[in-house]
Amino acid sequence: MKILLVEDEISLGDYIQKGLTEAGFIVSHQITGLDGYHALMSEDFNVVVMDVMLPDISGFEVVRNYRAAGKLTPVLFLTAKDELSDRIKGIEIGGDDYLTKPFAFAELLVRIKSLLRRAKQVDYSSNVLKIADLTMDIAKRSVYRGETLIKLTAKEFALLQFLLERQGEVLPRSVIASQVWDINFDSDTNVIDVAIRRLRLKIDDDFEIKLIHTVRGMGYRLEVIDSPDATAKAPTS
Fold first, then answer.
1. Could you tell me the pLDDT band of residue 192, with boundaries at 50, 70 and 90?
2. What is the DSSP string of 83-118?
3. CATH for 210
4. 59 and 130, same domain (yes or no)
5. Which of 28, 85, 112, 131 is least buried, going by the fewest C-beta atoms within 10 A?
6. How many domains does the chain have?
7. Are 56 and 15 in contact (CB under 8 A)?
8. 217 confidence band (pLDDT: 50, 70, 90)
């Protein structure tokens, strides 16, 4: 498994690289945003660990451009700031997880393994999930509404897959956070709301039939209100 680490604090970067190497990963350590971006666009990685505050361009900007190029590799942001606005921004531009400095290496390793596990589940499943005119081919990592290809980040793909697998159920924010992110967000944060809003923007806003619905005070539900015959196929494995 290859990991791209973009971290400008040399001592911290060396520490993380050493720990991940000892854990069995191949690690490429870059110290600037531009070098990190060039590595992302020229090599294949399984996970990206991206510092936010870099000497040239921010990690947010690197990932924004990377996602704009259609790349879906899971990204974990590292930052010295513990502001809700930063966490929301990271999710909005396509980040999959967020870890605040200082952190224990064991927690970083758990987060990375979680991202890898979810990516593996997506890559090797053969299920095709459907609702209305939306089709998700998990093996091919593709989502269509009718003939329109919908480009999703890895986390948006996982979120949509979870909603499809639980079609018709009211899913509380806490359940979505634990099942899709493998972590428990504070109850007063709106990270899940932001993620849902971004997913709606891609799969609902330009289409007549809306699929994601808010259940006030409870959570979200994926269903077709106008077309009761539309169903989603749940995984059999």
1. confident
2. -HHHHHHHHHTT-SEEEESS--HHHHHHHHHHHHHH
3. 1.10.10.10
4. no
5. 85
6. 2
7. no
8. confident
What lies within 8 Å, CB to CB, of 171 at 6+ separation is: 162, 163, 219, 220, 221
Domain containing residue 204: 125-222
More confident residue, 128 or 233: 128
Give the lowest-confidence range in 91-95, 160-164, 206-210. 91-95
pLDDT in tens, 56-74: 999 999 999 998 888 888 9
Nearest to 232 by CA among 169, 180, 178: 169
Contact predicate 113/91, CB 8 Å: no
Asked if residue 233 belongs to a domain, the reply is: no
Specify whether 20 is located in the same domain as 97: yes
Residue 46 within any structural domain of the chain: yes
pTM, full prediction: 0.61
CA dihedral 196, 182, 95, 171 (to 10 degrees): 0
